[in-house]
Design a protein that fits this description.
The complex is a heterodimer of chains A (about 190) and B (about 130).
Chain A: H1 3-14, H2 21-40, H3 43-60, H4 70-88, H5 110-126, H6 130-141, H7 146-153, H8 157-187
Helix pairs in contact in A: 2-3, 2-4, 2-6, 3-4, 4-7, 5-8, 6-7, 6-8, 7-8
Chain B: H1 3-11, H2 22-35, H3 44-77, H4 86-101, H5 104-125
Classes of the chains: A mainly alpha (about 190), B mainly alpha (about 130).
């Protein structure tokens, strides 16, 4: 993705060439839809939210201060929208206490078991309180880059670190039994 | 559960491809947005003299009410310390009576209705 292309497209849109916005949409549709999907775990809703994010970006294009990368600005705008949307209408997730736990792996295929465990971890992540959930989602979306997650959330890096740590602690508390059972079952020959 | 395990599981989130018509749908929404005339901004410059006059009127009213109350209280305290005097009560009563006869209630109602109309119009224009 080229920052120069983004800048050129933004300049053209601001000069009145609405069609130039398509370049921005094509370059960023994948990341914005995927980020929305991580928040909602619902494909249709993810696309609706990403579309709204692009519309808001179009409306606010003149407010992009070029000292930050266009992508940083766009992700912050989108993350802010997704967070408010999810607070307005929460994703349909199980409460943290109801995340299903895996039991003995006897006779169970190891790959399926690992898949189920991963799914349980993701469900538990979505059931976390919003501030921990958002920090974790953005941290992993930005490939574990704390400064990028902090920029998207508009909060200091130290706060992101604290939320990641607390969020992981809550997840660990809920899932330790699940994973411990899983790991033990893997060690058994 | 270790941090590495969380990292491994949560970093390996399934990746979606936007549906084929997504970019076109976004662009048609953007074009609709571009074709819509911009919302008319609130005419602050024109409203400013009126707002300033209203502010002056409210402040004057407050000052007049305070002066009236202090005078009434002063007259009352000459008789019984800490008590509201009969002349003060009768002055307040007279003021309320005058307000009732001059239609202050209707004026207040009209102001509230105007405020509601402005607020609703601004909400609809957003």
């Amino acid at each position: 993705m080229s920052a120069a292309e983004d800048q050129a497209d933004v300049d053209r849109v601001l000069a009145g060439d609405v069609a130039a916005f398509e370049g921005i949409v094509r370059r960023w549709q994948g990341p914005l839809v995927n980020l929305a999907y991580r928040f909602s775990h619902d494909r249709a809703r993810a696309e609706d939210m990403a579309q709204e994010a692009f519309l808001r970006a179009y409306r606010a294009l003149a407010r992009w201060r070029r000292e930050a990368a266009f992508s940083t600005w766009l992700f912050a705008l989108a993350a802010n929208l997704y967070r408010s949307e999810l607070r307005r209408i929460p994703a349909r997730v199980l409460p943290l206490e109801d995340v299903p736990e895996l039991h003995g792996a006897a006779g169970f295929d190891a790959a399926l078991e690992a898949e189920e465990r991963d799914r349980s971890v993701r469900r538990a992540l979505l059931a976390l309180p919003a501030k921990y959930r958002e920090a974790l989602i953005l941290f992993y979306f930005h490939e574990q880059d704390i400064s990028a997650a902090a920029a998207s959330l508009g909060i200091p890096e130290g706060t992101v670190k604290a939320r990641l740590s607390r969020g992981r602690e809550i997840l660990r508390g809920k899932l330790s039994k699940v994973v411990a059972e899983g790991l033990v079952s893997k060690e058994v020959p | 559960m270790t941090g590495d395990e969380f990292d491994r599981i949560l970093a390996r989130e399934e990746t979606l491809e936007p549906s084929s018509g997504f970019a076109a749908a976004v662009m048609s929404a953007v074009e609709r947005e571009a074709a819509t005339p911009a919302a008319i901004p609130f005419p602050w410059r024109r409203a400013l003299p009126g707002l300033a006059a209203a502010a002056v009127a409210f402040v004057s009213l407050g000052v007049a009410a305070a002066v009236f109350f202090v005078r009434s209280a002063g007259a009352g305290s000459a008789q019984v310390p800490g008590a509201i005097s009969a002349p003060a009560i009768s002055s307040w009563g007279a003021a309320l009576d005058a307000a009732k006869h001059s239609g202050v209630g209707w004026v207040a109602l009209a102001l509230v209705l105007s405020l509601v109309c402005v607020k609703v119009s601004m909400r609809l224009a957003e």
